[in-house]
Predict the structure of DUF983 domain-containing protein.
Amino acid sequence: MAPVAETPSKFTAAMRGLMGRCPHCGLGKLLRNYLKPVDRCAVCGEPYGHLRADDAPPWLTILVVGHIVIPALLHVEQTWEWPMWLHMAVWPLLALVLTLILLPRFKGLILGIMWSTGAHDDEPEEAAEAPPLNRS
Ligand SMILES: [Zn+2]
């Protein structure tokens, strides 16, 4: 494993995550199998398997794709008279392609932000199953 000189800024870590790279070193891959975070960076060894982005990447993807597809659809609808079959072919396909492109990037972005801010799942399964503390 290569030594990494210094901890990157939060912005740099987020941008490295957005590009699918390790937020720490920027060289190793952050995701495997499309959306699964690697357990550790293959280059610097930084652990990522414990980070849980939950619903943030799909939420961000829906937000962005919706703000691209719906204005484009409305513009086309008001400018040209496309037949309905063309609308039904173009817009779902555009939404699907944009979603498949953006979802792993936004997952990397969220993981990069989580890594740089130290935010991670505070409720490990052992703690959730532990009995309540005796406060007597
Ligand atoms: Zn790394």
